[in-house]
Amino acid sequence: MKKSIFEQMGGTYKREGDYLIPNLELPENDDKREIGSYGRQHLNYIKKHNYSFYFQMLTSGKLHSYLADINEQALEMEKSIVNSMAKAEGVDEKLKAENQLKWVGLMNNFRHSAREIINSSIIYVRG
Question: What's the pTM value of the predicted model, to 2 decimals?
């Protein structure tokens, strides 16, 4: 019996009842970084709006690294934006010591603003 191209390239099959199913596995992922919340948001976005890119990254074994990079980039951007907004508004450790409630409110506003900027510039556009 002639071997298929799949078998010639080293592929194997497993028998499921009367059918031969190819033994297909995704490549091993050596990247142990966390995907995080921004990575998961972007994953959901590319699954819905750019499925071909998602499938290409998944089957090439690069999806996890790609999402971890997105998450790291977004976290760095969030930290930078929050720090620059706090500095521009004069929110510092002195305010934190004097009026914690006001400090927390302002920092939460800065964080939410940063998240909106990140969502519009990184999370919901790439792929």
Answer: 0.76
